[in-house]
Design brief:
Strand 2 and strand 3 form a beta hairpin. This protein folds into three domains: 83 residues, Pseudouridine synthase (2-Layer Sandwich), CATH 3.30.2350; 132 residues, 2-Layer Sandwich (Pseudouridine synthase); 56 residues, Roll (Archaeosine Trna-guanine Transglycosylase, Chain: A, domain 4), CATH 2.30.130.10. The chain is of the alpha+beta class. The chain is built from seven helices and 17 strands.
């Protein structure tokens, strides 16, 4: 006798930010879907991807917080990485096929000089194995087909590039960089400067904007919690917006703003973005225009404020 179909548990309206410590071996989207399943959340998003090989900080947004997930896309990031000298790969990391092996005869002084050349404002050619689009198609799709697409160099800033340790041909480095930086390209460029080639064998994101791994949680830790306790690990919906100045609204301003109209009587910097509150209740964000008017940019949905 056939078993009756199991009823699917309806997804819940879950709102907030999860600071996830992503494991290696899964994509950022797979990590999001796993967390979403554990929270039984109706809606979720992430704030920028990590390669499947990479681990570390991946802020995930749920419910109303997804409206503010773009906030961290322009943020600086910090990583700890392991670089192997003497081997180049198709992807500039350990997931690619080996292209060449070269002897390594690199002094500590030569290494220090090459690292110094890669600090500050530099130009990087984005790797073919990346999610950047060409005519609506990701570059990695062309790469898998054996098609090479010309890429223009992009200017990025390497705020810090420090050697933490060296064990033969293996280096552990710390990188603090601007948005758009590919650490595996940095490793490849380092190998090119040294004349022996190199690729990335491990990568861990330790910081994004003002957030670090303190207070983050792994998928295994989240799964180990009782289901009713998991939502308690979420930060507030406005957790990613601490860099924006805060405004306290009166009843009239609140009424206008929450109905999608400009709130009047605001003093501040024209063109700047502000987060608005009615007491402790977060209302959304707006941009200040001429005449002291705060124009709503993103609003909390009615009932979730």
């Amino acid at each position: 006798m056939a078993k009756p179909p199991q009823r699917r548990i309806p997804r819940r309206a879950v709102h907030g930010v999860l600071f996830l410590d992503k494991p290696t071996g899964i994509s950022s989207n797979n990590a999001l879907q796993k967390a979403r399943w554990l929270l039984n959340a109706a809606k979720g998003g992430h704030t920028g991807t990590l390669d499947p090989m990479a681990t570390g900080l991946l802020p995930l947004t749920f419910g109303e917080a997804t409206k503010f997930s773009q906030t961290l896309l322009d943020a600086d990031k910090a990583y700890e990485a392991t670089v192997l000298l003497g081997v180049t790969t198709t992807t500039a990391d350990a997931e690619g096929e080996v292209l060449a092996r070269s002897p390594v005869d690199v002094t500590d002084a030569a290494l220090a000089e090459a690292i110094d050349r890669l600090r500050g404002d530099i130009e990087q050619v984005p790797p073919m194995y990346s999610a950047l689009k060409h005519h609506g198609k990701a570059l990695y799709e062309y790469a898998r087909e054996g098609v090479e697409i010309p890429r223009e160099p992009r200017r990025v800033t390497i705020h810090r590039f420090d050697l933490l340790s060296r064990d033969g041909d293996s280096l552990v480095v710390r990188v603090e960089c601007s948005k758009g930086t590919y650490v595996r390209t940095l490793a490849s460029d380092l190998g090119a400067f040294l004349g022996c080639g190199a690729h990335l064998t491990a990568l861990r994101r330790t910081r994004i904007g003002p957030f670090d791994l303190n207070g983050s949680i792994s998928l295994a830790e989240l799964e180990a919690l009782p289901a009713e306790d998991r939502e308690g690990r979420l930060a507030s919906v406005d957790a990613l917006l601490g860099h924006l100045p805060q405004l306290a609204f009166d009843a009239v301003q609140t009424r206008s703003f929450t109905h999608g109209q400009s709130a009047a009587g605001i003093e501040g910097v024209v063109g700047a973005m502000y987060r608005a509150y009615d007491g402790t209740r977060f209302l959304g964000v707006g941009t200040l225009s001429e005449g002291g008017l705060l124009v709503p940019t993103r609003l909390m949905a009615t009932g979730n404020q």
